[in-house]
Amino acid sequence: MQFPSDFIEKYNNLLRDEAEDFFASFDQEAVSAYRTNPLKKQQKDFPDAIPETPWGHYGKISGKSADHATGLVYSQEPAAQMVAQVAAPSKGSRVLDLAAAPGGKSTHLLSYLDNTGLLVSNEINPKRSKILVENIERFGARNVIVTNTSADKLAKVFKNYFDTIVFDGPCSGEGMFRKDPDAIQYWHKEYPSELAQLQKDILSDGLKMLAPGGQLIYSTCTWSPEENEGVVAWILENNPDLELVAIPKLNGMSDGIDFPETARMYPHHFKGEGQFVAKFQDKRVPEQTRIKEGKSNLNKEQKQLWEDFAKKHLKTRLDGLLQVFGDNLYLLPKGLPDLSKVKIARNGLHLGVFKKKRFEPSFALGIALTSDEVVSSIELTQDQFAQYVSGNVVTLDQTHPNGWYQLLVDGNGFGFAKVVGNTVKNYYPKGLRFHI
Ligand SMILES: C[S@@+](CC[C@H](N)C(=O)[O-])C[C@H]1O[C@@H](n2cnc3c(N)ncnc32)[C@H](O)[C@@H]1O
């Protein structure tokens, strides 16, 4: 791999007698890995578990596999898996992922929350926020909203609100060079300092949203000390209530420079790509915050149509706030402030659409529910799965009473579909379809 001479000089100076091993690691292949999703009912035994992680495995997952399409697995390299693991938010807590697309940290945080508390997953870039929505939807969590805005706008609505904030923001991306060698062309000597300034700007607003007693996790996928420890020093200087928490060094993590509490991941020590993580605890006494919650806005007919559907098809009561946007019905986690002034990319769990005098359940609802929570489900074979994902109707061996059924693949939800006799009509969203 060809590096700019300034990059070589910088890491020769920083790593000294380790520099040779560091540069040699770029001649090896990037490490692929994935996490399994504990929110899914039907788990599988996957090989090559990553030590010291609850859900990590080494290896590649095909984007066309049923495991991926049902959200049972999420591809994420091993070093990136350490960020949400360091955060490990408690059940019931309020969590913000400030720079979230494509969703690696967010989906991992949702694994810890286990459908309790709430996650606000924010991405400033509209195009990337759509990918984030897709990945979160597939993961099947019910307690997450996706916003598409800047930290300063978000801070106006969520002041002192979050128990955990994860900021894995824009960085110089040196740790991604092995995965994406084209990224090297953007690197120049001043690049890390420019990104460090951007991170500080975003954090100045981001930190206004931390609740007293909360925790901040700051991470990057780069090794430059101007970002990483430089930003840690700036956070400590400007936020006297924050103190560093020591991160246990797992699987070959190294101490951060001058801040041994923080963690660096180098590919010649840690089997993965590049990453830096720091964890801060806010020393202020936690306090009860009062917020003006958003309200349900369903009319009488919409309420009735949803209740009729839920009574007939669901065995579980979905807890949260019901809201309609246009004809779409969403379930928002409880305890959110009024979000009418925030640009939203996904307003909670999409339950379905009101169409004239009926309610049509969404794909998102059918992938978020387990088979125990639904009255009628139909398991697809692998061949039927291949037909369904390519947009075709599926013919079943048996006829069924006409109506809505949750589809299952390997025991996990895969949306709702209307069945007429022995035919499953296709409700797989057009944008997700693919051919096997
Ligand atoms: C390293 S990526 C995040 C990866 C993500 N945490 C994950 O695990 O999948 C950084 C993100 O920061 C976003 N970003 C760029 N400028 C930003 C800004 N000014 N404020 C907030 N986010 C920004 C980028 O669009 C990008 O999606």
Question: How would you summarize what this structure contains?
Answer:
The protein has 436 residues and is α+β, with helices and mostly antiparallel strands. The protein has twelve helices and 20 strands.
Characterization of this structure:
This protein is an alpha+beta fold. The chain folds into two domains: about 5-280, 3-Layer(aba) Sandwich (Rossmann fold), CATH 3.40.50; about 375-435, Archaeosine Trna-guanine Transglycosylase, Chain: A, domain 4. The chain is built from twelve helices and 20 strands. The protein starts with a helix and ends in a 12-residue tail after the last strand. About 45% of the residues are buried. The mean pLDDT is about 95.
Set down the secondary structure blueprint.
Elements: H1 5-15, H2 19-24, E1 33-36, E2 56-58, H3 66-69, E3 73-75, H4 81-87, E4 94-97, H5 104-113, E5 118-122, H6 126-139, E6 144-147, H7 151-157, E7 162-167, H8 191-206, E8 210-220, H9 228-238, E9 242-245, E10 254-255, E11 263-265, E12 275-282, H10 300-313, E13 321-325, E14 328-332, E15 344-346, E16 349-355, E17 358-361, H11 363-368, E18 377-380, H12 382-389, E19 394-409, E20 412-424
Helix pairs in contact: 4-5, 7-8, 8-9
- Oligomeric state of the chains? single chain
* Shape-level CATH architecture of the largest domain: 3-Layer(aba) Sandwich
Sheet with the most strands, sense and barrel status: 10 strands, mixed
What separation lies between the terminal Cα atoms? Answer: 34 Å
The 3D shape can be described as globular
CATH superfamily of the largest domain: Vaccinia Virus protein VP39
Strand content: 25-35%
Query: What is the highest CATH level, the class of the largest domain?
Result: Alpha Beta
Rounded to the nearest angstrom, the radius of gyration is 23 Å
Helix/sheet category: alpha+beta
CATH topology of the largest domain: Rossmann fold
Counted by DSSP, the helix tally is 12
Contiguous uncertain segments of 5+ residues: none
Cofactors, ions and other ligands in the entry: S-adenosylmethionine
Average pLDDT taken over every residue: 97
What is the total number of structural domains? 2
Count of beta strands: 20
Estimate percent helicity: 25-40%
